[in-house]
Protein: Orotidine 5'-phosphate decarboxylase
Amino acid sequence: MDFLEALSRPPLVLGVDPRPGLHGSEPLVHLRRYTLELCERLAPRLAAVKFQLAFFEALGPEGMALLVELVSGARVMGLPVIFDGKRGDIGSTAEAYAEAYLRRFPGSALTVNPYLGLDALKPFFQAAAESGGAVFVLAKTSNPGSGFLQDLSVEGRPLYLYLAEALAQEGEAYREGPWSRVGMVVGATYPEAVARVREKAPHAPLLLPGLGAQGGKPLKGEGLLFSASRALFYPGGRPDLEAAERAAEGFLKALVE
Structure:
C-alpha cells in the first residue's frame, strides 16, 4: 500500500477520536467493535482513516494495544492510515518518531509540527519516501486561535504561507508523479487559506480538518482530503453506525457534486 493512492479515492477521511465514556460498561470492547464495523461500512466512501493518538495514549497500554489493532484492521480493509500525533523534534528523537509511525507502518502518514525548523522535518520526509508514506505538516490549523502565530507577517505574507512556500520547494525532492509525499494541514474552516496554500504548493496533498462540527465548508479541488471526526465518528454525539453512513453520504455529496 502506498499512501498516495488515497488521493485517488473519495476525499473523505474518518477521524477516530475515541471517547470511552460513550461505549457502555465494557468501553474498549465496544469501541473496538464499533470502530472496525464503522470502517468496514464506510470503506468505499473513504480516502483514509485518521487516528488521533492522544485519545489512545490517554487510555494507557490498553489504549495503545487497541490502536495497533484498529490500524491493522483498517489496513486489512485497504484503507490508508493517518497517525495524527503532530510530532516534531530534532535529531535522533525525530528519527525515532519517524521509525515508530512511518517505517513500522509502511504506506501510512503522520502529522508533524514545523516549529523546530525544516531540518527537524527531514527525517520524517525521508522515512515517508522510503516507506511509501506521507507527512502532513501543520500550516494553517482549524482552531480559532491559530492566527496568533500562523498569521504573523513574514516578509510581507502570513507565516503559514511563508512555510507553505518553503515546504513546496522542499517537497519537490519527494514528488512522485503529480503529488509530493510532503503535504500540509490547512483547516477547512479557512477556505481562503486553502486556496492560497494550493496556489503556492500545487503538488502538496492537503489534509483539511474541521469538516462538520467545527464548521468547515466543503471545497473543490484535487489533492484535498477532508477530515471529519465528531460529526462522522459520533454523529449526534454518540456511536451510531446508520447515522454515520448518512453523514458520510451527505459529506461526499457536498464534496464531489
Notes: The first strand starts at residue 12 and ends at 16. The chain has a mean pLDDT of 95.
